[in-house]
Design a protein that fits this description.
A two-stranded antiparallel sheet has the order 1-2. A two-stranded antiparallel sheet has the order 3-4. The protein is elongated and about 70 Å long. With 170 residues, the chain is an alpha+beta fold. The model has no long low-confidence stretch (mean pLDDT 86). It has helices spanning 16-21, 48-73, 85-90, 98-104, 139-147, 152-162; strands at 30-35, 38-43, 112-117, 122-127. Helices cover 38% and strands 14% of the residues.
Length: 170
């Protein structure tokens, strides 16, 4: 998937040609809607039909993003067939009582990692070295992956790898 990349220099400039391509060449005022991870620019006011076409365009774009992400993850193994999102998430959730988190100095919203020490029959539990995993993915996206046979475990690996927290030494 290709995007037009512009250098951000403190005052974002949208080329006039882009407004023309979007049918907004006559718009005097522009509304800016903040989205998680993006910005939507649109005319200050839109008719009902314009709003419907905008919703359709956003839906289409969201589908393209989702398909590109799913293709990157690849097809799921047979073991994932028939699973519900809750089944998969249960493999990634580590739940500790609040008092234990507080005693260990681990923030309530911090991710946790667990490493078994097999020969001793112990577990090492600590704050995770990453910020995001499958438990952060909205359920409709998880369900899409499950319904169409895409690999949620590959998605989890991507999320964890991309959100590794850097240590002071790096």
């Amino acid at each position: 998937m290709e995007f037009k990349v512009i250098k951000r220099n403190g005052s974002a400039v949208v080329p006039d040609g882009m407004f023309k391509l979007c049918g907004m060449e006559n718009a005097k005022l522009i509304s800016m809607v903040q989205l998680n991870g993006g910005i939507l620019l649109m005319p200050e006011s839109v008719s009902t039909f314009e709003l419907i076409t905008l919703i359709d365009a956003l839906t289409s774009q969201a589908c393209e993003f989702l398909e590109a992400l799913a293709a990157e993850c690849g097809e799921a193994e047979e073991e994932q067939a028939g699973l519900a999102a809750a089944d998969v998430l249960s493999e990634f959730e580590i739940v500790l009582p609040d008092w234990l988190r507080k005693h260990a100095g681990i923030a309530e919203d911090a991710k946790l990692e667990c490493d078994p020490v097999e020969e001793e029959g112990k577990l090492t539990l600590c704050k995770a070295s990453y910020r995001h995993d499958l438990t952060d993915v909205p359920h409709p996206i998880l369900q899409y992956f499950l319904d169409f046979g895409y690999d949620l475990y590959a998605l989890n690996e991507m999320l964890v790898a991309e959100s590794q927290e850097q240590t002071d030494a790096e």
